[in-house]
Specification:
By secondary structure, the chain is α/β, with parallel strands linked by helices. 42% of the residues lie in helices and 19% in strands. It folds into 6 domains: 102 residues, Archaeosine Trna-guanine Transglycosylase, Chain: A, domain 4 (Roll), CATH 2.30.130.40; 89 residues, Up-down Bundle (Methane Monooxygenase Hydroxylase, Chain G, domain 1); 54 residues; 178 residues, P-loop containing nucleotide triphosphate hydrolases (Rossmann fold, 3-Layer(aba) Sandwich); 82 residues, Helicase, Ruva Protein, domain 3; 174 residues, 2-Layer Sandwich (Ribosomal Protein S5, domain 2), CATH 3.30.230.10. Helix 8 runs antiparallel to helix 9 and helix 9 packs antiparallel against helix 10. It is found in: Cytoplasm.
Length: 753
């Protein structure tokens, strides 16, 4: 057994009976060479770098036959001498050392060895002919060599094979085995060389001076055609993925057709990117992938009760809808549409339904959408095209049966780019959405498994055909006691978790919450209430972060220290002639308004201010006409209006106002100013009036009555036409209110003055 220093060389394999030059450029290699020259007569074990231990069975002992200093380092020439078996490798004093055993080789079967040599020589001659007479260095001398061992190692050194392949052959046992592998490798290279020559001959016929830049691409195309392997690895993977996917037959055929187009297009072409993106979308869509739902109505009820306080009628309607869905197994029918002011829980109700059913939840906001392509997608001819919101969100969900919330359908717009609402009809109509056609996908997609839910603040701005497909569920808003409970059950625990406080740090009494509701928020929902509570929590967190030992206690007396001066002082009836209190509905809930009227010497003009809309202005004109036509009943002169100007004003002039429901309020205000009689301070009213003095029904009763309760009003005048509608108003809203139903203006005068 012999021991020698080990020299690791890159990108080269040294064999016995051959030599190679090598540049020694780093300190470790230089030390190894110096050690070999000093202690081992210039002998080293040569191994290629980057080879794992499992592949290091054999190596070559080489002698350093020359050393020359160059600008790049020390140039050494290594002469391979013997093939050795590696017994062990170790590091000694920073120098790698190897224990080796010299292997003496000879063929086991000389006849087979010589037969292999003759076969290799024939291939080498053909290889030289294909290279136009330009052979690899040393190949001509190999033709004359007959000794199996010498021929083997000189051939390995001379032929242009990959270094890894050469090393693999070198590690094999037996001369015949190694010669056989060399024959196989040369045969493969020779076949490639033949094809390359054919390819070059074909390509040269088609090339011109202006086409030289496409040489590589043309060569690749011919290579792929000759080998019967026209698709690259990416395309092959795409093809396998398409074939294994669960997409319907129409989609699979379309995908394979696009894949064929992709093969014929240069990879750097813009069209190639478009096709790849399209195929990615087809593969991303959950064509038949459904999530198993848990249609347990009791669980649905439990989840709704846990996540939402109040809203009893809303939850009851949802339970009824889902019960039908469970029994029929189909969501065909009307689409649920939650309508209500901001912050009343429309979106969170959708999330709760998804949670209760065990389905995925996705949401798309339609507010401000004016382009039909936002729903149906852009055609692929456009740069940067992509599917519409519906297909995008379905793909993101990963299943074809999510709960899909379409938010703010009342804010869809229309312009020259199309009508998104019309496109939405196909999405929501269960009769046709089984084959929804997105302009980008161009294949019908089945949306019938999706549970669609929509939300809106108002219904009047929803296009009638779209509204006709929806089951409207009104969420009017929360009463004061409901807001207090929501704050205690949901908002405060969530805020404590989000801000890192402890429960004892953030204690808020019912009185404090009530004060925040009345003086710092004026809303139907609870968003501003949550913001106010978060503001308090942040101030407490700040004190804790500064290391304060005493955490301030929140009371009704020091609430201004946390939230500042109150924003709302509550409703206060303004006493006086010409003032009447009315109830109005707004997109954010009910509101108490006061109409003021003053009469002055003039010429019979009716002056209207306070940003009244056209409908409200017409109500004022109708009110004055009713009074003029009944002047005797009200004790007025026949021509009173000729010498007076009547000025009607609704405060908060910066806020636009409209609608017919202020008719009775304007009537009472004008009559009060003309007769010099005050209206009652605890009365509010709503209703539309006609020229004959009849009072017509109005909408938004629940929101209006909630506003009356919050303002401390005890008596509310309502149209007789709304008497049947009052049954739909929750008892908690009606409690404590004296509701008076009137048929005409005479009844209004009797109860308002």
């Amino acid at each position: 057994m012999n021991r020698f220093p080990v020299l690791y060389i890159e990108e080269e394999v040294l064999f016995p009976l051959s030599s190679i030059p090598y540049i020694v450029s780093n300190g470790h290699e230089l030390i190894t060479i110096e050690r070999a020259m000093d202690k081992f007569k210039g002998k080293v074990v040569v191994l290629p770098s980057g080879i794992s231990n499992l592949e290091r069975k054999f190596c070559t002992i080489a002698e350093v036959v020359s050393l020359n200093e160059t600008a790049r380092g020390i140039r050494v020439v290594l002469q391979g001498e013997d093939r050795c078996r590696i017994k062990s490798l170790r590091d000694t004093g920073g120098i790698p050392m190897a224990d080796v055993e010299i292997v003496f080789e000879e063929p086991e079967d000389y006849r087979k060895a010589h037969a292999l040599i003759r076969a290799i020589k024939r291939l080498l001659v053909e290889f030289t002919d294909l290279s136009d007479g330009e052979s690899a260095p040393g190949i001509e001398s190999l033709i004359q060599e007959n000794d199996p061992v010498i021929f083997l190692y000189r051939t390995l050194s001379a032929i242009p094979l990959n270094s890894n392949v050469k090393w693999h052959i070198y590690q094999l046992e037996g001369i015949e085995t190694k010669l056989d592998k060399i024959l196989e490798a040369i045969s493969t290279d020779l076949e490639v060389a033949r094809l390359e020559k054919e390819i070059l001959d074909k390509v040269k016929d088609r090339l011109s001076k202006n086409q030289k830049q496409y040489l590589l691409h043309e060569q690749l195309k011919v290579i792929q055609k000759e080998l019967g392997r026209e698709e690259d690895e990416d395309i092959q993977k795409l093809k396998e993925t398409i074939e294994k996917s669960n997409m319907p037959e129409e989609a699979r055929e379309k995908a394979l057709s696009e894949l064929e187009r992709l093969k014929k297009i240069p990879p750097m072409s813009p069209e190639s990117v478009v096709i790849r993106n399209y195929l990615d979308w087809l593969l991303k869509l959950p064509w038949n992938n459904q999530k198993q739902e848990e249609m347990d109505i009791k669980k649905v009820q439990e989840v709704l009760e846990k996540n939402h306080y109040g809203l009893e009628k809303v939850k009851e309607t949802i339970i009824e809808y889902l019960s039908v869905l469970k029994l029929t197994g189909s969501s065909k029918g009307h689409i649920l549409c939650f309508v209500g002011p901001p912050g009343v829980g429309k979106t969170s109700l959708g999330r709760s339904i998804a949670e209760a059913l065990g389905r995925k939840f996705v949401r798309a906001s339609l507010g401000g959408v004016k382009d039909e392509a936002e729903i149906r997608g852009h055609r692929r001819t456009y740069v940067g095209s992509m599917p519409g919101k519906i297909i995008q969100e379905i793909a993101r969900a990963g299943v074809n049966n999510p709960v899909f919330l379409l938010d703010e359908v009342d804010k869809i717009g229309v312009d020259y780019r199309g009508d998104p609402a019309s496109a939405l009809l196909e999405v929501l109509d269960p009769e046709v959405n089984q084959s929804f056609m997105d302009h980008y996908i161009e294949i019908g997609y089945d949306l019938s498994h999706v549970l669609f839910i929509t939300t809106a603040n108002v219904t009047y701005s929803i296009p009638p055909p779209l509204l006709d497909r929806m089951e409207i569920i009104n969420l009017p808003g929360y009463l004061e006691f409901e807001k207090i409970e929501i704050a205690k059950r949901h908002l405060i625990p969530k805020i404590i978790e989000d801000t890192g406080l402890r429960q004892k740090d953030f204690r808020v009494s019912d009185g404090v919450i009530k004060k925040i509701i009345k003086e710092y928020t004026q809303e139907a929902g609870v968003r501003n209430l949550e913001r106010s509570l978060r503001k308090i929590a942040r101030k407490i967190a700040r004190e804790k972060a500064f290391g304060s030992r005493r955490i301030p206690r929140i009371t009704t007396k020091n609430i201004e220290d946390f939230l500042g001066v109150p924003k709302f002082k509550g409703f206060k009836k303004k006493q006086g002639v010409g003032v009447a209190t009315g109830l109005a509905w707004t997109p954010v809930g009910g509101e108490v308004i006061q109409v003021e009227t003053r009469v002055m010497d003039g010429e019979g003009n009716l002056i209207l201010t306070g940003q009244m809309g056209d409908v409200m202005k017409e109500s004022a004109m109708a009110a004055l006409s009713v009074i003029r036509s009944n002047y005797k009943r009200y004790g007025l002169n026949r021509d009173f209006y000729r010498k007076l100007d009547v000025h009607v004003h609704i405060p908060e002039g910066a806020v636009p106002k409209d609608g017919p429901s202020a008719g009775v309020t304007i009537f009472s205000s004008i009559l009060s100013a003309l007769t010099k009689k005050q209206t009652r301070g605890d009365v509010a009213m709503t209703g539309e009036i006609t020229l004959s003095g009849r009072v017509l029904g109005v909408g938004g009763l629940t929101a209006k009555l909630m506003a009356a309760r919050s303002a401390g009003i005890k008596k509310v005048i309502l149209p007789l036409d709304n008497e049947r509608d009052i049954k739909e108003v929750p008892e908690a809203v009606k409690a404590g209110l004296n509701l008076i139903f009137v048929k005409n203006t005479e009844d209004v005068v009797e109860n308002a003055f």
